[in-house]
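1st attempt posting a full record on here, be nice pls
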Amino acid sequence: MIERFDHVAMVVKNTDETVELMTRLFGFKVGDILTDNDGGFKSTMISKAAVTLELIEPVGPEGVMQKFVEKRGGGLHHISVRVPDLEAEMKRLRAEGVQFVSDEPIQVNETSKVAFIHPRSTNGLLIELAQKD
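the predicted structure (as tokens):
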């Protein structure tokens, strides 16, 4: 069961430039920043009121985000929705035939875990399910 919309994630070539633009135009403020060197990306959350964007920037010449930038130049990566019980929601959706990118949830930090629904199951849109305690 979806509780609410969480955020929209977009891949960007330069986080600093995008933060400056979004701050100047709309008053966004920087929140959490996570660097995943193994995954080859940096994630920066920016928010204004009830709107949150995740800016994903490739780090290094390899990785799926760098390939995304090379192929598409950046843009929408995924939408995220909040769920109260991630494992229960994954089980329910699997029973409906939904495929996930990975079999198990990803622990983002001490209080958050996520799972991505494979775009094959959602007409091409990558959807992240997020549980935040």
